[in-house]
Design brief:
The protein is mainly alpha-helical. The protein is built from 13 helices and 2 strands; from the N terminus they run ααββααααααααααα. A two-stranded antiparallel sheet has the order 1-2. Helix 8 runs antiparallel to helix 9 and helix 9 runs antiparallel to helix 10.
Length: 254
């Protein structure tokens, strides 16, 4: 079955990646359903504790990620073994990134505004892996011809230029654009030539004596956030659940 899929549907050698991505997405979605049911007090599920310590699902996630990662390295790219380890890795990665905000803040912020970062990282990861599955190669190498690929100089120049544009986009405060730009260089170019976001390293360095540029950057950032913040929050709430109100959470901690 696996060989048939590789011959007729996906690029050879990418079946483990497809399996891992599927397991990753399904694990995240199922985990969110379970946690939302626990939060609402419905169903047979409950928090796991040992010796009075709440065991977050990032713990088994780390164990599965390590197991799946080392197993994948030790196995070949074909066969049942590679697919099985890909599933284990995908499940582990889904559990870990579902609590990315907890790792970032070293605090249980799962149902807070800060917890939205987990949903954002999961969506970003799934999108990037999806691009790789579609045939995109980091740093624009997929845009080179066969003759250019044989020339190490062309490859080095392509990687360096793509990396430079991604770095410029990152310096301008556009992290998502920089990350996607690693896979699709055109996105990095767009991020590099547009105005920097206020407060970014680029704005502090080059807009200090340019009041018009600072004003345009603030206006553009305001319009962008006003246009996209609402839809983004609605999508995140639909995927991961709506965070608790901060005042109510603060009262519970007292």
């Amino acid at each position: 079955m696996g060989h048939w899929l590789e011959r007729n549907i996906i690029e050879p050698g990418k079946l483990p990646l497809l399996v891992a991505l599927t397991a990753f997405v399904l694990t995240f979605l199922i985990t969110r359903v379970v946690t939302r049911m626990i939060r609402a007090g419905k169903g047979p599920f409950g928090n796991v504790s040992a010796g009075g310590v709440h065991i977050h699902h990032v713990v088994p996630g780390v164990a599965l990620t390590v197991l799946g990662g080392f197993g994948a390295v030790a196995s070949t790219r074909h066969g049942v073994g590679s697919a099985a380890f890909a599933v284990v890795f995908g499940i582990g990665a889904g559990l870990v990134l579902d609590e990315f905000a907890l790792i970032l803040h070293l605090d249980d912020v799962y149902w807070t505004e800060a917890g939205r970062k987990s949903v954002e990282v999961v969506v970003l990861t799934a999108a990037l892996v999806g691009l790789v599955l579609c045939g995109f190669v980091p740093f624009g190498v997929n845009d080179l011809s066969e003759d250019e690929l044989q020339d190490r100089g062309s490859v080095i120049v392509s990687v360096a230029v793509s990396f430079l544009f991604s770095l410029m986009a990152l310096a301008k405060g556009k992290a998502r654009t920089a990350i996607f730009g690693v896979i699709v260089p055109l996105i990095a170019v767009i991020g590099a030539i547009r105005l920097a976001r206020p407060g970014s390293p680029w704005a502090k360095r080059f807009y200090g004596r340019r009041p018009r540029a600072r004003a345009r950057a603030r206006l553009r950032a305001y319009r962008h956030d006003r246009r996209w913040a609402g839809p983004s929050r609605i999508l995140q709430d639909w995927i991961g659940g709506r965070p608790d109100d901060e005042p109510a959470r603060a009262l519970e901690r007292r």
